[in-house]
Specification:
Residues about 1-35 have low confidence and may be disordered. The chain has a single domain (about 15-40, about 65-225), classed as Sortase (Sortase, Chain: A), CATH 2.40.260. The chain is an all-beta fold. The protein has one helix at about 185, and strands at about 15-20, 20-25, 80-85, 90-95, 115, 125-130, 155-160, 165-180, 195-205, 210-225. The longest helix has 4 residues, at about 185.
């Protein structure tokens, strides 16, 4: 099958970080840029990997983490991200916002490269840290997070940091959201604990508009090595 046409998914959200808070409040049309070109559909998370929410305000997470969290670490830049369950072992580069509020992706010429939003929380520190990467590339090659949707609750994500510590996060949920109804308040909610989000493209794919959503992994710091 021929490679898919290059597209970028949109979400009406932007990063506005402050101490312990990551709020996404952009005008509609801002984009979280990811690749969207592989000729096969990447794994999609089944419904059983989503949060089992109790009644509560729409868009809010209403169930506490299933795995005991530990105390947060002082800030330190992350260097590498590993997800053993899907054979990810990737260096991390810094991601930034451009003038329009777009979170730029890692360079497309480096398929095994992930990024973290350096204007926000460092992974392992108190708050919600954001990492992102391509699901696939303009060449049709799978990206670093091609198999992200195959993660299940209880899988671990390891972040090597510049302070020589490894922050170990346990997956609490894997969800996929339509890009037109991306729940920014839920995904980027502030936290007193050390939490991690891993984001890539997901959902149905069309040749005209690319992926219709984003796959989001929620994880909580549960160990430090």
């Amino acid at each position: 099958m021929a490679p898919r046409q290059h597209t970028t998914p949109t979400s009406s959200s932007s990063l506005v970080p402050s101490a312990g808070l990551l709020a996404w409040t952009l005008a509609a049309g801002a984009v979280l840029v990811m690749g969207a070109l592989h000729h096969e559909q990447p794994p999609q998370p089944p419904a059983g990997q989503a949060f089992a929410s109790l009644p509560g305000p729409a868009g809010e997470r209403t169930v506490p983490p299933a795995h005991p969290a530990i105390g947060a670490l002082p800030p330190a830049p992350p260097l590498r991200l590993r997800i053993p369950a899907i054979n990810v072992n990737a260096p991390l580069t810094t991601l930034h916002l451009d003038a329009s509020g777009t979170l730029g992706p890692p360079p497309a010429g480096h398929p095994n490269l992930a990024g973290w939003y350096s204007g926000g929380t460092a992974p392992g520190s108190a708050g919600t840290a954001i990492t992102a990467g391509h699901v696939d590339l303009p060449t049709g090659e799978p990206g670093v997070f091609y198999n992200l949707g195959a993660l299940t609750k209880g899988n671990t994500i390891e972040i090597n940091r510049a302070d020589r510590r490894t922050a170990v996060f346990t997956v609490e949920a894997v969800e996929v959201y339509d890009k037109e109804h991306f729940p920014s308040d839920k995904v980027y909610a502030s936290s007193r604990q050390a939490e991690l989000r891993v984001i890539t493209c997901g959902g149905p794919y069309t040749e005209h508009t690319g992926y219709q959503g984003n796959t989001v992994v929620y994880a909580t710091l549960t160990a430090v090595r």
